[in-house]
Amino acid sequence: MRYRLGRGRKGIARKLLIGLSVLLLVAAACGDSEPEPSAEATSAATTAAPQTTAAPDTTAAPDTTAAPDTTAPPPERATVRIALDFIPNTNHAGVFIARSMGLFERENLDVEVVPWAFTVTGVLVEAGDADLGIAYPPDILREVALGSALKIVAAIIQENNVALVVPADSPYQTAADLDAAESYGGYGTPHERPLVTEMLAAAGG
User: Fold this and answer.
1) What is the pTM of this model?
2) pLDDT in tens, 48-104
3) CA distances from 183 to 167, 179, 193, 201 (A)
4) I need a labelling partner for 84 at 20 to 30 A (CA). Which of 44, 96, 155, 197 fits?
5) Which SS3 state, helix, strand or coil, does residue 79 take?
6) How many angstroms separate the CA atoms of 90 and 85, rounded?
7) Which DSSP state fits 72?
């Protein structure tokens, strides 16, 4: 009796290949799937420590801005003494208008006008009899040249309003004509002679 071993071996090999293929597929499927967590792991996850994020601080910082003290007395009004360089005139109008309109009071100032007494205002200021004074600039320049500590701080008249005047029917009708004049009337201040001399020279006298 003869056996056909070749055909039988092929059948066995085919069955072995099919069996191996099934095993490989099962192994691959088992490797891709993740195992379900155990009951112990699930319990540990639910009992984990709570988050430690701090809650926002809703308590605002106190306002340290000091409220104005309404009980404090108002500041004392300062007294300022102004000396005039002559009897009250248009040159001093600003002082009297400001005082009548209450502008000094608005600045908490009590302005006192020192009566004119035939005294150079620079002398009154330097002696402490006035806090400030209205004066003719050449007078102050002379005082400073002699060592005074006075200082000019403002000009209340923007142009010099000093003029040489003569009678309407005088033969001296120009500044150059005054070169022939025999007399001159003025305040007698030291600066008058050099000032008038310069004026005549500029006019051709």
Assistant:
1) 0.53
2) 445 555 666 666 665 666 666 667 777 788 999 999 988 999 889 999 999 999 999
3) 13, 10, 12, 17
4) 197
5) strand
6) 12
7) S
